Amino acid sequence: MHRRSLAGSLVAAALAVGLVVVPQSAQSAPRGNAREERVKVQAEQAKVASQINTNKASKEEIDEAIQALNDNLRSQEAALARVQEEVAQAKKDIADAEAAIKRLEEEVATLKAEIKRRAVHSYVSPPTDSALSVLETNDFVSASSRKFYLELRFQDDADVADRLDGALNDLDFQREKAEEARKTAEAKEKEQAERTDAVRAAKDAQQKLADKLQATINQQIERSVQLAATDRKLAKQIADEQAALVARLAAQQAMQRKAQADAAAQAAAQQSANQNPDGGESKPLPPVSGPTGGGTGTGGIPLCNAAGITLNCAIATQATNMLNAARADGVALSGSGYRDPSRQIELRQAHCGSSYYAIYQMSPSACRPPTARPGQSQHEIGLAIDFSNCSSRGTACYRWLAANAASYGFYNLPSESWHWSTSGS
């Protein structure tokens, strides 16, 4: 019943609102044009989808909204691509017609000049078929040949005249064709502008939903962090839901913010370079500085750098305090925190297998090493740290964290000595 609420209302509400940006060409399309009707309906569905209340919507409704917006963008881009091809074809028709006009005008000029030359020549030396011309030769056969030649000359002149008539007719046709192509190009360029606006509106609708999802995710993560000390079960549930939202938004973010994904990958590479495998106990180490801004991750996750570990800004301060406390006790902690959803997929491929089942459905414990499914990892929302020097429970890193991490809001996943998060998952 809940799934039906959004799907059933997408068309009805859109038709009631009537505020969708749809090209005039699509609005006025014949009823039989199923493709144009589909584009129009998808635009209407996307308009409603962009208005969804992400704070109250179910996962299924959010999935449907994202899908509606993605479908709309694809259909609008496809429609734009089609009209761009039609514009290009119309311009080619214009160019072809103009080239033909130029060629035919040259041919007409040449034919007219030839006809004029022949007329002058015929007036000065008119052809004759008199007996006298035949008798001018002593050879009848030769006289017959000359008569045939004269007949060919007359026939050639007629051919020239016919060719001129044909060229003039072709010239008129090409001029009409060029004018028709210009009208087509003008109409298609107008439609192209409308389609371009429709694509822009589709992207804006995607961004509107993405912004709302980002705000919801950030609010709920803050709530999860606040609840961690009093209700870890609820905190885990909220964090898991937000990780799933991030995964759902990842595909859309990848299309709209490829530059951000590249920046996140670059940050992850830099983060790996900052990792330090040394976890031995020694004298107190100098404290590290407070967290600094590190940009935005997929799903709008605000990222901060906490002593070389990229984390959600909501926990960056408590993580920095924990790292400094460990350093004061002679334990240098290092590792990795935030992980882009695409990186989580890569890890599942490496640790679990390359099939769809292995990546998205196989139990995390069946992977070597155990690896969370995409959309179920606290790393994807920056609430977990994998410490590089906690490979076992016997390390100084693990012993210190086991004794102290809880006071800073971090808990261990029992199956992984190196994995610590705000919910212990």
Structural shape = elongated
State the helical fraction: 55-70%
Please name the CATH architecture of the largest domain. Answer: 2-Layer Sandwich
Query: How many separate helices?
Result: 12
Major pleated sheet:
4 strands, antiparallel
Distance between the termini: 32 Å
Mean pLDDT: 73
Strand content: 5-15%
Q: Give the oligomeric state of the chains in this entry, treating copies of one chain as homo and distinct chains as hetero.
A: single chain
Q: What's the order of the H and E elements?
A: HHHHHHHHEEEHEHHEHEE
CATH class of the largest domain: Alpha Beta
The number of E-state strands comes to 7
Low-confidence stretches: 1-22, 129-135, 148-153, 270-290
Strand order of the largest sheet: 4-5-7-6
CATH topology of the largest domain: Muramoyl-pentapeptide Carboxypeptidase, domain 2
Helical/strand content category: alpha+beta
